[in-house]
## 1
Amino acid sequence: MNEPHDNSETAGDLVLGVDIGGSSVKAGRVVPGEGELVGTRVRMELPRPPRPAPVLDMIVETCAREGPVSRVGCTFPGVVERGRVRTAVNMGPEWTGLDLRAELQKRFAAAWGHEVPVVTVNDADAAGVAEVRWGAARGATGVVLAVTLGTGIGSALFIDGILVPNTELGHIEIGGRDAETFAAARWRVEEDLTWEEWGSRVDRYLRRLEALIPAGLIVVGGGVSQDFALFAPYLHPRASVVPARFRNDAGIVGAAAVASAADPGRPTRPTI
Ligand code: BGC
């Protein structure tokens, strides 16, 4: 990798956080070390089908207008190791094997005229990092799980604040089915479930999860966490269950945190 261009005079220390989700992409500039978004958050609908080239072109075209940054952190809703996508359940087979980090870095370099380091991370891992650093799990020790309930189910596992990346616990099997195929937030809407009906599915999922991984604290994230009070009465795991603080911004803030903590010349190691 080339040495990053020194654009510190204009970029300051702002980091661009990009959160690729199953239905949209959200992005914003973040003050690293504080977890605060600066200015407006942009939201882009994913083209259907969400093939890599049009999605990445859209992200770079939109975000490059947002002003200078010193780094970019980008989430992906699948396993991503050392910048490369390994699984992409809700995005399509074209993503598997793609060097997401290299593809973004190339496009941002072309748009900005200089190279800016890009770091990639699983979306739920990024959301969990934001919650552990500044949110609902701040200062929590021991085993902490963050789950994101959205188009799919994502998971982030922390041990004394250190992330164990790419855990993929949304795919544990319950009653012969992949958990995210019945307990993700999309099913409440798509199957027109009551909060009790859907909350009971989430309860079943969380209790199975804690039977496998005895967490002391479970943070529930994803857009639906803003309605936490409506389904919390149906959740009965032994662990404390709390709503995420960052809601829809968790991925952006967490991606930026991972990018600013990582050494861009080395493989991504999304510890906090
Ligand atoms: C993916 C995870 C992702 C989650 C939430 C799942 O289908 O396998 O990697 O974190 O969806 O987007």
Note: Confidence is low (pLDDT under 50) at residues 1-10, 264-272.
## 2
Amino acid sequence: MYRDLVEKLAQKNDSRILLAVIDGLGDISIEELGGRTPLEAAKTPEMDRLAIGGALGLHIPIARGITPGSGPAHLGLFGYDPVRYQVGRGVLAALGVGFKLQHGDLAARINFCTLDDSGVVTDRRAGRISTEKCVELVEMLTDVQIDGVETFVIPVKQHRACVVFRGNGLIDDIEDTDPGLVGHKPVPVTGSGKSYRVVREFQEKAGEILADLDPANFLLLRGFSLHKEFPSIEERYGLRAAAVALYPMYRGVAGLVGMDIIKCSPEDITGQNRAAKKALSGGHNFIFLHHKPADSAGEDGNVQAKIRAIEEFDRALPAFIDLGFDVICITGDHSTPCPMKLHSWHPVPVLIHGGPQRSGYSSEFSERQACTGALGSFLSTDILPLLLAAAGKLAKFGA
Ligand code: ZN
């Protein structure tokens, strides 16, 4: 209801919006930092300046207490209710390697694995074979043909690959064949109907090809999901959006909502800046900028690396500000606290600069100040309406 209202009130103008996502930005108090977070400890003069002239708040990625993956967390930032617009793991894996999915494609993740002579799984990752080996195995599987569908097998990394089936009438109500534990046989595909037959046949034929190899002599399938096309961010909010992201998964998620994916060359933040400049001069008025290193540092539990990643982003920021945005939002997709080495449910600091704001409440960009910031705390899906409003892109409701 509320979401439909935002769509109805959205109006076009020339204002430009930058949504900069520092992946995994949020953190919790860390002892070695005297109880501060990496964002609080990092030297970030540029973001602090924007905080002084703008407004801070906290966003809740999905709902209180829910830990999100990066896919759904980004959909929330793009104004798509991540519970309503769900993207399955298989689809995310295919998007992640840049595979162009079509509406109705059935995708699943593959793990190459090791079976013993009795067909029991002894290693669910086949000794973590090299990515080169994975490419070789996938090459062998391109011969697999199944009636009624086109089959695509795509290497991912190490023991991981993914498969996409393209054909009419596919469904994704299929259980993982991965037993989840060693010492068990792969879970048989028992249902009747086209999709079950296709998956069963694929697993059998692939199994025959791999049977005599070592250590990867079989494969396990999980995360079956159908690709469904979403209404685009232009249709919903009138934005001509472009993504400048270096990692395939984020380009994939941006592509799901119809953003144009701009090639970044070189593949670093300088290239992202050039790409953003090009997109703006081509008429785009919404830029999604993704910065990955803070999340990786958080998952490694490396506090100093996370601080460095945030500082690196801060140093790159002026070149983006110089491109001429009317509204700038800096936030994370979720928290990745270093002490947890995992994504978490903790609300994420948000900074909005530009347009009329209740400024003067904050002196720096930090979790602490975000807690008492002028924007308060809100769901991630409220960010886009706040940006539209700041950019004058939302009409008044009623007389
Ligand atoms: Zn993330």
Note: Residues 23-24, 70, 73, 295, 333-334 surround zinc ion (CB under 6 Å).
